[in-house]
């Protein structure tokens, strides 16, 4: 895609090469990070593509800063956190505090990927394991705290820009029927199911995800 578009990627606060900042984090804070990056780089408007928490940030941008967006593509991203979802992330926080990040590696892999991918155990899984393992405790906990407070479900009707919700057909955290319901609440929302994929659809079926994204951007070049 970088041959056709100016692509900007960044590491979430507390993740990758970004600064480790003590939490808790919340979505207004994560959205401010994006606006700060765009401000530094002179980005006035952009298409937004985010997976999981990245797509959730996209919902927040769509609700509160739609003038900064052409479109949103939210991949495997639910818009709110019911009690059982919030409890899951609290359990991750608790487990990581006791056992370190190593303690949440395998349970996360099992939640994110399909049984078929787990059985095949391709090399990409080891790269994901290392990504989880090397994430800072503060970054992990901060984002888990943000995920516990996710609450854009009742505001989806306020997103005016074209919005694509796509997700794996076997995603446990953001199942297809849930994303389809979310898309119906957004005035210009659409939903695409990615076959043979779980929560990290871009890794399990990259060809289908790329095709959906490219088709969307061709239909909405500067919506």
Automatic annotation (TrEMBL):
InterPro entries, sorted: AB_hydrolase, AB_hydrolase_1, AB_hydrolase_fold
UniProt KW Ribosomal protein keyword: no
GO MF entries: hydrolase activity
Domain AB hydrolase-1: 3-212
Superkingdom as given in the UniProt entry: Bacteria
Record keywords: Hydrolase
Coiled-coil boundaries: none
Protein name in UniProt: Alpha/beta hydrolase fold family protein
Biological source species: Brucella thiophenivorans
